[in-house]
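Handout, page 2. Input:
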Amino acid sequence: MFSFDMDGFFVNWIDSVAAALGVDPALARAANAVHNFPQALGLTKSQMWRAVDEQGTAIWENMGIHEDAFSVFEEARALHGDRVDIITAPNSPSSCAGKALWVNKHLDDVKNLDIIQLSRNKWRLAGPGRYLFDDSPTGCRDWESHPRVVPGGTAVLVPRVGAPGRAEALDRIRHIIREAV
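Output:
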């Protein structure tokens, strides 16, 4: 089974959040590349999420796509069908509904696609033969070594857009999904 993180990995939530905050998208992308987005913008997490929540489902439904990672996700779906799922965090009250709208807008044939709403507990899906492709160091570390995980899962940390090593990580994922056929 292949689990793909949604936000920040193949969906460009950062530009949507930047627009909601009235922040220059280039500044937001630079801050996001080093995993300290709210702090780099001089905000607390609660201030950021309050601004996001004020946008309702639209902020989530209208997020752009990171084509480099989205093409890997689509290749995995073509090769592995219902063995591919999306893991996404329910970050705000409107995110679940908004992300469902995004999926229906951008993905063909979603009837066999599981969209799993987890936040910090992605490790609950880990185990032998399971893969996680994520931009979160914590999510990847927990996938492979959380004390309650059955060993054998593999996580690939994909640097965020603008950070070094992103192309190499996506190439590694392509190799994994092609070898698993």
